[in-house]
Every structure is written in C-alpha cells, then in structure tokens.
C-alpha cells in the first residue's frame, strides 16, 4: 500500500519533468543553428562583423562559437574559403525567393476566395 502512495506522488512529478527535455531541445536547437550560421560565414570567408550584421536575430556568442570552430577545423585540414555568392541588391529578389512569394500570394488568394464568395451572397 505504501508503494502505491509513493507511485501516486512520483507519477505527476515524472510528467512535469518530462517537459524539461522539450525546453532544452529548443534551446539547444537555437544554439546549434547559431553555430551553423557562424561556421558557414567562416567557410565563405565572411568576417564576424558582417556575419553579426547579416544575422541580427541569432545570438552573437553562438555565431562566434561556430565561426571559431570552423576556423580551427579549416586550419587543421588546410581547407580554403569558398567565395560567397554575390549580395542581392535591394529591390531585386533571387528566382527562388520570387517563386516562394508567388506561391504565398496564390495561397492567400485561395484562402480568401471562399470568404469572398460567402460575403457576395
């Protein structure tokens, strides 16, 4: 009987603590994304300041950690930098971005079509 009471007390505690993994996973994912951004900046030969400016939403510490790791790796393996793609001029989008915008616009039109038909009646 005593073990049932202990189990009844531990069961809710286990459910509460199981959510901690999901929170930690989200935090670690953001950190890993920041490190990936920093590593890609280093591999393409971009400076840290340029990388910070281009990725203002990402934590600078994560970008720096990724940049530093990639720098050490590239020096150890004697890897050369890859030329970064040319900067997109303001007012013009890449073909992929234009396709993406067209798809979003058509999705909005399709979603609003039933609403417009109901209001016309």
Rg (CA only): 25 Å
In total, the number of domains comes to 2
The description of the largest β-sheet is: none
Strand content: under 5%
Mean pLDDT: 78
Query: What would you call the structural class?
Result: mainly alpha
**Which of globular, elongated, flat, extended, rod-shaped describes the shape?**
elongated
Runs in which pLDDT lies below 50 for 5 or more consecutive residues are none
SSE series? HHHH
- Total count of helical runs of at least 4 residues: 4
First CA to last CA: what distance?
67 Å
Count of β-strands: 0
> Which percent range fits the helix content?
over 70%
Oligomer: single chain
Protein name: Lipoprotein
Structure description:
- The N and C termini lie far apart (67 Å).
- The protein has two domains: 2-85, no CATH class; 88-121.
- It is an all-alpha fold and 121 residues long.
- The longest helix is centred in the first third of the chain and has 42 residues, at 2-43.
- Helix 1 (2-43) packs across helix 3 (60-77).
- It has helices at 2-43, 48-54, 60-77, 95-120.
- The chain contains four helices and no strands.
- The radius of gyration is 25 Å and the shape is elongated.
């Amino acid at each position: 009987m005593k073990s049932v009471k202990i189990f009844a007390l531990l069961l809710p505690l286990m459910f509460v603590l199981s959510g901690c993994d999901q929170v930690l996973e989200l935090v670690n994912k953001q950190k890993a994304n920041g490190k990936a951004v920093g590593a890609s900046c280093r591999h393409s030969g971009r400076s840290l300041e340029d990388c910070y400016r281009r990725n203002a939403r990402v934590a600078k510490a994560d970008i720096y950690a990724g940049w530093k790791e990639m720098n050490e790796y590239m020096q150890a393996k004697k890897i050369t930098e890859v030329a970064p793609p040319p900067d997109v001029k303001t007012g013009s989008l890449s073909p992929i971005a234009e396709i993406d915008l067209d798809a979003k616009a058509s999705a909005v039109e399709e979603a609003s079509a039933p609403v417009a038909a109901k209001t016309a009646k």
